[in-house]
Amino acid sequence: MRLLIRHFIPAFIGLLALQSSNALAVGITNSVNMPNGASKSLTTPTAWGASNNVVFFGGGGTIPSPYSTKNDGAAVLGCGLGDSKKNIGVQLVLISNDVDLKSGWKEYSGAVQLSRQLGNANAIAVGVDNVPLINGQMDDSGKSYYVVYSQGVQAGSFVNETTGNSKLTYSIGVGTGQFSDKSPADIGSGKGAHGTYVFGNIAYELVPDLNVICDWNGVNLNAGLSHTFYVAHLPISVLVGAADLTDYSGDGVRCIFAVGTGFAL
């Protein structure tokens, strides 16, 4: 089991796909305060998936991997099709699970999410992560199916008066696989075989496009920061955090990070 594949990848995809949320916001009335452009989670999915011909890519890692002294990395390439405001958004993702410049990138998996915006800065989505594509099953937990609801709080005190963005967001979901199954190392360490199945995240905007985040991925608690800035009108999203803050799973606190970008075709 590797933390990056099991839990970090869903949030990393969300970090990159978030650029489609900004595109969608253009067509929504001013009375709806959409979330900002920074990530809303660290290790869990959100329902604001990519759509509207958005392409995104990037890379990230964990230092170190659970029950190991080695670091781990991954790369992501994805796209968003359809229109989650008018009907359904379809997010398709290709993941390189093992970024190794010496031996080559040999392990690949996929992820799919279907999302629907509900019209009040909220959305619902269903998805599957860790679909093996090359070199067989990449994760002890197997395919992970989930459903998730996300909301940008509309109360006046939680709205940025300058940007009009909702400053407080949250998501709640339930899933199998990575959200419910602990690793063989966890089981061998006497930490049980199953997590809570339920996952969630909450994010608060400190300044425009800078969020402080806390999430529970079904087997552990995580906290961190995400910021999106622009270089020649191209959004660059960065995420840093501390994972495995409790002894419910894993063998200690570790650092996670990601950087990526996305744009509409």
Top keywords for this entry?
265 residues, mainly beta, Porin, twelve-stranded antiparallel beta barrel, 2 helices, 11% helix, 45% strand, globular
Describe this structure in words.
The protein has a single domain (3-264), classed as Porin. Helix content is 11%, strand content 45%. The protein contains 2 helices and 12 strands; from the N terminus they run αβββββββαβββββ. It has a 12-stranded antiparallel barrel. A hairpin with a 2-residue loop joins strand 10 and strand 11 (234-243). The longest helix has 23 residues, at 3-25.
CATH topology: Porin
Number of strands: 12
Cα separation of the termini: 36 Å
User: What is the string of SSEs from the N terminus onward?
Assistant: HEEEEEEEHEEEEE
Q: Give the overall shape, derived from the CA principal axes.
A: globular
| Sheet with the most strands: spatial strand order | 1-2-3-4-5-6-7-8-9-10-11-12
Contiguous helical run count: 2
Strand content: 35-45%
Mean pLDDT: 86
Q: What's the alpha carbon Rg, rounded to whole Å?
A: 17 Å
Classify the secondary structure makeup into a structural class. mainly beta
Q: Helical residue percent? A: 10-25%
- Low-confidence runs: 22-29
Q: CATH homologous superfamily - what is it?
A: monomeric porin ompg
CATH class: Mainly Beta
